[in-house]
Amino acid sequence: MLLPSIPIIGRSIMAEELLEPGLDVVVKKRLADAGLQAATAKGATYADIRIGRYLNQYVMTRENKVQNIIITESFGIGVRVIANGCWGFAAIGDTSSEDDVARTAEKAVAFAKAHSRLMKKPVQLAPQKGFGEVSWKTSVQKNSFEIPVKEKTDLLLAVNGAAMSNGADFINSVLFMINEQKYFASTDGSYIDQDVHRIWPNFTATAVDKSSGLIATRDSLSAPMGRSYDYLQTAPPDRVTGVTTRYNQGYDMLEDATAAARQARLKLKAKSVEAGKWDLVLDPSHIYLTIHESVGHATELDRVLGYEANLAGTSFATIDKWKSKNFNYGSKEVNFFADKTQPGSLGDVGWDDEGVKTKKWDIIKDGILVNYQAIRDQVHMLGETESQGCCYADSWSTVQFQRMANISLAPGKEPLTVDEMIKDVKKGIYIIGDGSYSIDQQRYNFQFGGQLFYEIKDGEIVGMLRDVAYQSNTQEFWNSCVKVCDERDYRLGGTFFDGKGQPAQINSVSHGSSTARFNGVNVLNTGRKI
Amino acid sequence: MAILTKEEAKKIVDKVLAYSKADEMSVSLSGNRTGNIRYARNSVSTSGESDNLSLSVTAVYGKRSGTATINEFDDASLEKTVRRAEEIARLAPENPEYMPMLGQQNYPDSKTYAESTAKIDPEFRASAAFDSIDPCRKKNLTAAGYMEDTTGFTSIGNSKGNFGYNRATGVDFSITVRTDDGLGSGYANPDANDVSKINFKATTEVAMGKALASAKARALEPGKYTVILEPTASVELLQNMMRSMDARNADEGRSFLSKKGGGTRLGEKLFDERVTIISDPMNEELPLSPFGGGGGGGRFGGGGGDGLPQEKRTWIENGVVKNMYYSRYWADKKGVQPIPAPGGFILQGGTQSLADLIKSTEKGILVTRFWYIRAVDPQTQLYTGLTRDGTFYIENGQIKFPVKNFRFNESPVIMLNNLEAMGKPVRAGGNLIPPMKIRDFTFTSLSDAV
């Protein structure tokens, strides 16, 4: 499920403090050992500790105004234990006292014992070897937090100016910059120090036609990335040219805002789509969201098993379908892999939040469902002995659980460009950018909109459409996939707002793909009069 | 420690304001204790409890403002936080939309606090979970549920002499029960300030009943149907529409309340004449904070944090748009009184029960819940989403059989024009909503999901 906005947590700090080092790793180890010892002394059979410092900087503007600059730090320690076969969790903020950590660990054990009477079966944790003292870092060429705030507001105001002078009536632009400094230790003997960076520049340009009463918006075609400020530098190969420019490893926000304003005005005059069956050509900036909802969530093992039944729901991709080894999730063109190691992706880390080394594995191979995403207390249900390493908590104060890995559509094996793909389409719609989205609680029926809709007629793009949304069923949709462009077109999309759990937690995840074609998809006209 | 009294809070607020050297200063002091228990597959999965007490100080020089927060309360820390807020303010860019702080406001006492909720402990939560899991285990049904309780307070004050204090409690309980064969699913989701108003076992039994009744659903063709929407189903659509009543967006031409050619639709009749929507922080069933951000309802927050008092207001009367929200900046620019967004709303209904509405229906669909509702077109308030956890076909005043879930594409504005009947409002998602009968509700496709 995608949540509509990012929660703001932590205390306000000065921009300079973003660059201050957190606790020394020696101190973190001492705190961790105090907690682990206290937990085991009270009867825990397993314990892990996460010492987290979460730094956020959000710069928000509207037209010619800086609306808000939010700079926050959240620091604290979360302890998770197994006692009497039951999980227990407790957390404490803003402390570097070994006694505080020990007391928190004892509280976690007390919670586990109090609730163990409600357990049907004890927790079964996959074994995990300890890694000793290790570390991992996002590859950062230009740290976002080293860039002065003024440079960021100047960039956004220039972006807004470019949009306003090219036809936008309104624009909101934002820079989200995040750094998670996470230290993990467990009774398995791991002490893992990680430094994770993310960035997401984005905007919405709006054009209004007061005479007709119509409005049109165009969102940025950027992707949130597991990168830092270097994502805002572009080299020629980062531009994917065509009917509109899209971006790869570097994003030109000014150029995109200029195009967005012009396109928002064109959308006001675009032809309203005729409902019916259309072939769809879907750009990676669009299809990542369809992948997220119909493949990413559907193959999360906790959902398949019913652990999320009360909120996000369960999944149609049940264990019997996986066991059959012949469940046609999609056509033979469809290959999905999970990956927590792809550089620049949002899910890229060295170890997950329960000390498992990250990796890459297949989810759908030649159209057949072959695996799920699972963590240490789940893999035994698949007959496996090793976790896939996709456990995550969004804060030191929240308990870690299974979260989506980067789930990506593998590029087609045969050479194929987007132009070549479009040439073959008789009656189609080329969709770029993500729009509205909704899917049922077992991930069968979905509906997606987009940012830009281009009509394809006899292999040519003939103009823009509006009021477009497509509805399909996951299995039917992925079986209607006839072609995927080759690896030259492979790009990442993603979100900061993957929501799951109660209390709700967010997760950042990328989805890679090349442009893909789907035949005979049901398209609705969403225009209404009120 | 986390829940301070009015006197304790005022002492800290006054102390902070006394340190101020800025043109203006405001303080927000809030604390809460929140606990939860989560279960699935008839077994507890996670639980937790946390305390939080924090102080936020905003200093203003001209039109530049800066905010600093802290959770330590000794004199030195308080003063340091004030100096820090002042330093951030000096470095901040000017906000051309900044409005001077409010002087003393009058905030009436609202009954948002219940001692029964404040006393909840882990043992209480474990018992509530047991009362929910146990009946399901006995009937070979599977329970997944979540209970969260919060006790908190918020105190605000500023250098212009304003001060406010409100404490509130809330409990949110949701339960999904599924049949073991996966063919039936039922849901219930009460919320209350006072936990004694929630019966965990009886609520679970409602979800159990829906799970059993919804099994082996038949497929009906999608299309336009007369629907009866339980409040749990309609609340989110109505809430989305209410959240879109911002005057600035309407004036700027980008809202469903914008008028073709310019201006807004304030004063126009947009809905069936039986539609009247109000908000009232003093309502006994739905007590809300007397000022923005002061807590209340089942969930905390709502109404903006600038200290504007929440008053009884009519938003829609007999189908006519009577009020929109005006931020203080936009109200000043337009020469009108500012109006904060409410923390919750009341759609006034009738006296009929849900059973009465079903009885009077010749052919229709009973919808007990909608899910994954997202905007398709904000200008027409078109939303898409799906039915979930029990959808039933009604014929000649009786529920005949469960039906497969539908996807809908519908606007609450159109829905409230196609109104056939309304029942007695009940609390749902922090609002009071009646069950409603609506004609020509648009279902666009079928879903196999259970």
Could you explain the architecture of this structure?
The complex is a heterodimer of chains A (530) and B (450). With 530 residues, chain A is α+β, with helices and mostly antiparallel strands. Chain A has two domains: 11-269, PmbA/TldD fold (2-Layer Sandwich); 272-525, no CATH class. Chain A contains nine helices and 28 strands. Chain A has helices at 25-41, 98-115, 149-164, 253-269, 284-296, 301-305, 319-324, 418-423, 474-479, and strands at residues 11-12, 46-62, 65-83, 86-93, 132-137, 170-186, 190-209, 214-219, 239-240, 246-247, 271-272, 276-282, 336-339, 360-365, 368-369, 391-392, 401-402, 406-409, 427-432, 437-439, 445-448, 452-457, 460-466, 468-473, 481-484, 491-500, 505-513, 516-525. In chain A, helix 1 runs parallel beside helix 2. Chain A is globular, with a radius of gyration of 24 Å. Chain A starts with 10 loop residues before the first strand and ends in a 5-residue tail after the last strand. By secondary structure, chain B is of the alpha+beta class. In chain B, the strands form four sheets. In chain B, strands 8, 13, 14, 15, 16, 17, 18, 19 and 22 form a nine-stranded mixed β-sheet that branches. In chain B, strands 1, 2, 3, 4, 5, 6 and 7 form a seven-stranded antiparallel β-sheet that branches. In chain B, helix 4 packs parallel to helix 5 (200-214). The longest helix of chain B has 17 residues, at 75-91. Chain B has helices spanning 6-18, 75-91, 115-118, 122-138, 200-214, 231-243, 247-251, 328-334, 354-359, 412-415; strands at 24-40, 43-61, 64-70, 141-158, 163-179, 185-188, 191-192, 224-229, 277-279, 313-317, 320-321, 346-347, 363-367, 370-377, 382-387, 391-395, 398-402, 405-410, 419-422, 426-428, 431-433, 436-447. The two termini of chain B are 45 Å apart. Chain B has ten helices and 22 strands. Residues 296-303 of chain B have low confidence and may be disordered. Chain B is globular and about 70 Å long. Classes of the chains: A alpha+beta (530), B alpha+beta (450). At the A-B interface, strand 1, strand 3, strand 4, helix 2 and strand 20 of A face strand 1, strand 2, strand 3, helix 2 and helix 4 of B.
